[in-house]
């Protein structure tokens, strides 16, 4: 993956996560996208991907990041990755696909946008299967608004997806112990 591909992936995730707010950003290849591409070319694709996940985890915000804020996320992720690389025997990590998909599904459910859940992958994508996506959709549709975010977390965080529960994946990632997250 190169920088542009990472940015295209980021752009799609931001538009999916913040559909109304990102409308002003325009399409992939548009003027705003080109400006982001010119500024973000200095970062490795994995840094852009990690910054995207950091932004999505910061999804409590009502608005997507502007370019300076996204650059700050990239700089923070680059620094974190460099620190991880400097530690002997400590591989750095790419965000787990399930984390992104589950957090996006939570945000969409809370915004009442169930129809806009991420499409089912045709194959396994970084430890996320079609069955995982089907289960996620079923669980989100079981949730009722009167239970709020706590009820949604209760439904999703302990469900046994193919790579483990959401809570387990986050804990393993925090400890750097999920082998499928590690890059050489």
Characterise this structure.
The protein has 184 residues and is mostly helical. It has 8 helices and no strands. The protein has helices spanning 3-17, 31-40, 45-57, 67-86, 97-110, 130-142, 148-157, 166-175. α1 packs parallel to α3 (45-57), α3 packs across α4 (67-86) and α5 (97-110) packs antiparallel against α7 (148-157). It is globular.
Mean pLDDT: 75
Order of helices and strands: HHHHHHHH
Query: What structural class do the secondary elements suggest?
Result: mainly alpha
Helical run tally: 8
- For the CA atoms, what is the radius of gyration? 16 Å
Features:
184 residues, mainly alpha, disordered C terminus
Task: Outline the secondary-structure elements.
Layout: H1 3-17, H2 31-40, H3 45-57, H4 67-86, H5 97-110, H6 130-142, H7 148-157, H8 166-175
Care to give the gist of this entry?
The protein is an all-alpha fold and 184 residues long. The protein has helices at 3-17, 31-40, 45-57, 67-86, 97-110, 130-142, 148-157, 166-175. α5 runs antiparallel to α7 (148-157).
